[in-house]
Design goal:
The protein has 15 helices and 14 strands. The chain has 395 residues and is of the alpha/beta class. The protein starts with a helix and ends with a strand.
Length: 395
């Protein structure tokens, strides 16, 4: 059974292996908000804590069988790294859709990677099949007390770094991270609130807690691949139900905006799962004005190939990028006049497309623009309307 002694023992085992990650003020967000940068952890995410503590606890016989695990990427790297430190073989089942950077890094740590179509839950089934077939030792990413104890060391650290903390916001997938943190915090400072946050496209723990029993989602869809889990763990569900105060959800656009904010203001890179806690604070899913709040930025292993798409979504969400469709008369010089109106608002044109259709003497101009914020967009639309142009759509 999970205990505070296990978590303290995990801290001793992890000393010199996992970093005590820094706690930074998120002043551009709110003076009460801090973020604990687990994106700067060894292997780029918090998962090394639970993975290493679990692998270190295995017997020589269990290690000799070879270790198998399943993961969307961060637990994969943690197990591969830990197995290499113990000089044992590791086999990791990963979704074929996992970021290429996570797959390649897992291989570089020495693991044999088995790609599986689907999401985390499909890799779990494949890992169990291979475990039965070859006798490997299975290391679960969240439904294991040793793994949970390793993640709980974050709770010990942040209470030492910020004893006056009032609440902690934690990303939730299967529940291992929040289970460890909540257990540690509630045993040391029970008045401190612990809030979970899930992607709206993968709310398995959120729905399970609200219904009072574990449910399995039919599908999950989110850029936060690290928390895209269809079914929470039995152990983690019980701990969350007992020690976590609330769970909220955030949208894809909100996660994207949080990633962008961290890049711009904190000069810090977070993956979707890692930025979910920041998104909850940014978009008022959790009240932070009167509470000293720590957001756990759980990982930074974002694939560079999707960063541009995430930034685009984040810019659009914050009103700094907009596409408008305008109906104008199909007469010489009319487009130049319309663009002159746009120019006077100080919006910057990125792309422009001019289309004729079946309406005689009318055309449609689609313009992609850089703007300051949502107020600037309304100012732009108002200026166009005053000059007689009809804005049909904005996105």
């Amino acid at each position: 059974m999970l205990s505070m002694q296990m978590i303290r023992d995990a801290a001793d085992v992890l000393d010199g292996v996992a970093r005590c990650t820094p706690l930074y003020p998120a002043q551009h967000l709110n003076d009460n908000v801090y973020f604990k940068a687990e994106n700067l952890q060894v292997t780029g995410a918090f998962k090394i804590r639970g993975a290493y503590y679990k692998v270190n606890s295995l017997t020589a016989e269990e290690k000799a069988k070879g270790i198998i695990a399943c993961s969307a990427g961060n637990h994969a790297q943690g197990v591969a790294y830990s197995a290499a430190k113990s000089n044992c073989k590791s086999i990791i089942c990963m979704p074929s859709s996992a970021p290429i950077s996570k797959i390649e890094t897992t291989k570089k740590y020495g693991a044999e990677v088995v790609l599986v179509d689907g999401v985390y839950d499909d890799t779990y089934k494949k890992a169990l099949q291979l475990k039965e077939e070859y006798g490997y030792t299975f290391v679960h990413p969240f439904n294991d007390e040793m793994v949970i104890a390793g993640q709980g060391t974050i709770g010990l650290e942040l209470l030492e770094q910020c004893p006056e903390v009032d609440q902690v916001i934690v990303p939730v997938g299967g529940g291992g991270l929040i289970s460890g943190i909540a257990y540690a915090i509630k045993h040391i400072k029970p008045e401190c609130r612990v809030i979970g946050v899930q992607a709206a496209g993968a709310p398995s723990m959120f729905k399970s807690i609200n219904l009072g029993h574990i449910i399995t989602l039919d599908n999950v869809s989110t850029i936060a691949d690290g928390i895209a889990v269809k079914t929470p763990g039995e152990i983690t569900f019980d701990i969350v139900r007992k020690y976590v105060d609330d769970i909220v959800t955030v949208s894809e656009d909100e996660i994207s905006s949080a990633i962008l904010m961290l890049m711009e203001t904190q000069k810090s890179v977070a993956e979707g799962a890692g930025a979910a806690s920041i998104a909850a604070a940014m978009f008022n899913k959790v009240e932070v004005n009167n509470r000293k709040t720590v957001c756990i930025v759980s990982g930074g292993n974002i694939d560079v190939s999707i960063i541009s798409r995430v930034i685009t979504r984040g810019l659009a969400k914050s009103g700094r990028l907009v596409e408008i469709v305008c109906k104008i008369p199909d007469t010489p010089g009319e487009m130049a006049r319309m663009l002159s109106v746009i120019g006077k608002t100080r919006a910057n044109i990125i792309n422009i497309r001019h289309d004729r259709n079946s309406i005689v003497n009318t055309c449609f101009v689609t313009t992609e623009l850089e703007t300051r914020d949502s107020h600037h967009i309304e100012e732009l639309i108002s200026a166009l309307s005053k000059h007689g142009y009809t804005v049909l759509n904005k996105s």
